Every structure is written in C-alpha cells, then in structure tokens.
C-alpha cells in the first residue's frame, strides 16, 4: 500500500494536533511535517515534497493563499487543500485561479477530510458541498462573457458535462441527468479538463462561467 505524505499548515497547535491524530490514524496516510505560518509552510513543503498540504488561510507572516501560490509554483507535484470557513468567499474565488486542489470547511466530518486528501493526491479537485453554492452564485452573477473559442474543442457530450459541473452537480448527479454511468462521466470530465488545460473541478466551475458557456444567473 502506498502511503500518502501530508503536511499540516496552521498556526493553532490544537488544530494541528487534531489533524495529525486523524491523519496518522489512517493506514495509508502519514503526517511528515507541520508549519506554523505561511513562510514555514513553503519551507517545510520544499524540504519534504509531500503529496498533499492542508493549508489554513489565516496565518501570520504569510497567509495561506500566498503560501499556496508559492507551493504550486515551486512543488507542482504537491496538491494544496485550503481549509476555509463560510465567511471567506473572496479567498475561495481568488484561490480557484491559482492552482489549489480544492477547499474544505474546517467543520468537515473526519471521513470527508481524509477522503479529500486521497482524492487530491489522485489529481481530483475537491470542493466542500457547502462551498459550491456560493461559488456558483458569485461567478454566475458576473457580467456576461463572450463565448471562449476553447469550448469548440469539446464534443457536445463533453460540453454538457462541463455545463452541469458548472451548475454544481456531482458526478453521480450528472450521470443521472444524462443517463450515463458515473465512470463515463468521470471519463468525459477528464477529457474536458485535459482539452481546456484545467487542473481540476474548481477551475472547471469557474471556466464554465468565465468562458460564456453558462450565462449570469443561469442555474
């Protein structure tokens, strides 16, 4: 069994301790480093090259978002999961454009946290279900956008899948909507991400609106 290496970045010792206890209790996960601020996070990740970083946003010296941007550039093999709260919409929107693997609420159930780490390590974007409606609302409320020519690379089915991802549907919900198998939906989404040069699901949601595929107010 391959063990996934994880770094924890949070300025609160109790939070790090709780996360370490949770993660080290899983047979396929291991905490290999901790960081108390953003600068420390960049240093630890550069030294350890973990598979995944759990990154708090509010930290001294260098905030989590700025640290995440540096890590994505310096260690492209490391996936960054941002730990967020309901009142950090602007952080979520900005981070979606900077290559993070996804967003989790600090209040997420333990099983969701560990599964998100596994998914992120496989290159799958992770967005806490509670975050999705706000993301869609804010991107959908923006000004109308001219249709992006990159959309012409997609097949009709791939375009349908991207639109439904943009509306916040899960793979299972898309499968039911289009009468497809969930594995087939994953295959289509993978091709969409590859053709459009998008890293993960969070970027796909943003692109669906920014490209003009979905219009403001459309749900």
Explain how this protein is built.
This protein is an alpha/beta fold. The protein folds into 2 domains: 4-127, Response regulator (Rossmann fold, 3-Layer(aba) Sandwich); 135-210, Winged helix-like DNA-binding domain superfamily/Winged helix DNA-binding domain (Arc Repressor Mutant, subunit A, Orthogonal Bundle), CATH 1.10.10. It has 10 helices and 6 strands; from the N terminus they run E-H-E-H-E-H-E-H-E-H-E-H-H-H-H-H. The protein has a 6-stranded parallel β-sheet with strand order 2-1-3-4-5-6, sandwiched between helices. Helix 2 (38-48) runs parallel beside helix 3, helix 6 (132-140) packs parallel to helix 10 (201-210) and helix 7 crosses helix 10 (201-210). Helix content is 48%, strand content 14%.
Placed side by side, the strands forming the largest sheet appear as 2-1-3-4-5-6
Derived from helix and strand composition plus strand pairing, the structural class reads: alpha/beta
**Main sheet attributes: strand count, strand direction, barrel closure:** 6 strands, parallel
According to CATH, the fold-level topology of the largest domain is Rossmann fold
Q: On the 0-100 scale, what is the average pLDDT?
A: 82
Q: Examine the secondary-structure arrangement and name the CATH architecture of the largest domain.
A: 3-Layer(aba) Sandwich
The domain tally reads: 2
CATH homologous superfamily descriptor of the largest domain: Response regulator
Taken from the alpha-carbon principal axes, the silhouette is: globular
- Through-space gap between termini: 42 Å
């Amino acid at each position: 069994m391959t063990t996934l290496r994880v770094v924890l970045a949070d300025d609160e010792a109790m939070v790090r301790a709780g996360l370490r206890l949770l993660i080290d209790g899983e047979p396929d996960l291991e905490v290999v480093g901790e960081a108390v601020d953003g600068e420390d996070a960049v240093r630890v990740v550069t030294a350890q090259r973990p598979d995944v970083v759990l990154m708090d946003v509010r930290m001294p010296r260098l905030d989590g978002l700025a640290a995440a941007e540096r890590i994505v550039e310096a260690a492209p093999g490391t996936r960054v999961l941002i730990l967020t709260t309901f009142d950090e919409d602007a952080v979520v929107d900005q981070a979606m454009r900077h290559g993070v693997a996804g967003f989790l609420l600090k209040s997420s159930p333990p099983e969701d946290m560990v599964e998100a780490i596994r998914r992120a390590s496989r290159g799958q974007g992770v967005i806490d279900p509670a975050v999705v409606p706000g993301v869609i609302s804010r991107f959908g409320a923006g000004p109308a956008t001219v249709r992006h020519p990159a959309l012409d690379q997609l097949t009709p089915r791939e375009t349908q899948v991207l639109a439904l991802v943009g509306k916040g549907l899960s793979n299972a919900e898309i499968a039911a909507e289009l009468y497809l198998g969930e594995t087939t939906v994953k295959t289509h989404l993978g091709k969409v991400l590859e053709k459009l040069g998008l890293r993960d699901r969070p970027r796909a949601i943003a692109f669906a609106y920014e490209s003009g595929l979905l219009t403001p107010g459309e749900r």
